[in-house]
Amino acid sequence: MNTVVSSSNISVYIHVPFCRQKCSYCDFLSWPQHEEAIPAYVDDLVREINLYRGVLAERQVSTVFFGGGTPSLLAGPEIRMILDAITSAASMLPDAEITLEANPETLWEEKVMQYAESGINRLSIGLQSTHQHLLQFLGRMHTVDDFYKSVEWARNAGINNINGDLIFGIPGQKLQEWKESLLDVAALKLPHLSSYGLTYEEGTPLTTQMEENRFKPVDEEHEWMMFRHGIQWLQSKGYHHYEISNFAMTGFECRHNINYWKNLEYIGLGAGAHGFINGVRTENAKSLRAYQRMIYSNEKPIVIRQKVSRNTSISETCFLGLRMREGISNKAFLNRYGTSLSDVYPVEIPRLIESGLLESVDGSIRLTEKGIDLSNQVFIAFLLDE
Ligand code: SF4
pLDDT (tens digit, 9 = 90+) per residue, 195-228? Predict the structure, then answer.
């Protein structure tokens, strides 16, 4: 059975691995204080896009996502150069969603205007909290006011599709403060919000400080209360809880991320970027030097290529799909794999339904509210042996 996903549409992810300074909790691939390397990096991205002309010529680009790092360190004309390179290599759908992740301290009015003129139609702004002491704890460089101004500039530039990123479970964060952050961003009527619990990644300064007992992490129950409050409160304000950590007004769900959660194809450009094309997962060179060397040799800077087996593809489709509240459609699964969900998981699905973690609704299976709380336990049940 062929598990290759064929689709004439494709998403493009562009990684920008530069930041002003490193936030204490961050383990993303990004380097602080390397901004002088950005112009050459933009040229490299354009070259890399040209290396994908073959793939791009056959597809229509439905979404582009500049992620990082801090993509808003790029100037408006640099974003335009990259988007022009994509549109000269591929046809872009007229309603393509083009997102740029931005940190408030790197924005100003004219720059946001230039982004809009270059084609950016969605901004995802890292706010994290509307409490200055919590921003400081996280090592964020911006103020709350910077965020408010960014939203205003985006709207003035005609970008109304705006996401605000929030973090809960920050040491020292009171439930009341979390409620206030939600209240503050909802008052702005942003059409999309992401809400993630703080995680302690290996090797970050935050994790080291925790291991040295320099602060007390939020206990699990307190964090769960914040998570649950966020879901209930945002739903009461008209947000649709469409993925475990994401909320949107109808029509503003992030199409790029939905593409990931549906386990569909995308090209990954830039140092360390991941891609998924023709059934093969790819990973680009992480070091800037290695990335540039390969680009200059006219070679795609891919250092890992892994053909996805049928079982891995099924497992991924299930645990990514279950992140979305709509779950996995039995029909879509059958069309993609030629077999039904119940044939692949004859024991697991009934057991998870019986224990109240999954439910079957309108021809789909999806997590229950209890299943959302215990999602990792559910995802493990969908892992198939190779
Ligand atoms: S701005 Fe984002 S990518 Fe950069 S260090 Fe902070 S969390 Fe990491």
Answer: 999 999 999 999 999 999 999 999 999 999 999 9
For ligand 1, the distance from its centroid to the CA atom of residue 93, given in whole angstroms, is 30
Domain-by-domain residue ranges, the chain? 9-261, 313-318+326-381
Q: What are the pLDDT digits (tens) for 157-200?
A: 999 999 999 999 999 999 999 999 999 999 999 999 999 999 99
Give distance in angstroms: CA of 386 to centre of ligand 1. Answer: 35
The DSSP element (H or E) to which 201 belongs, if any, is none
Residue whose CA is closest, atom 5 of ligand 1? 22
Q: Which CATH superfamily is domain 9-261 in?
A: Aldolase class I (3.20.20.70)
Architecture of domain 313-318+326-381: Orthogonal Bundle (1.10)
The encoded tokens of residue 375 equal: 């999602």
Sort 117 into a burial class: Cβ within 10 Å, 0-12 / 13-18 / 19+.
middle
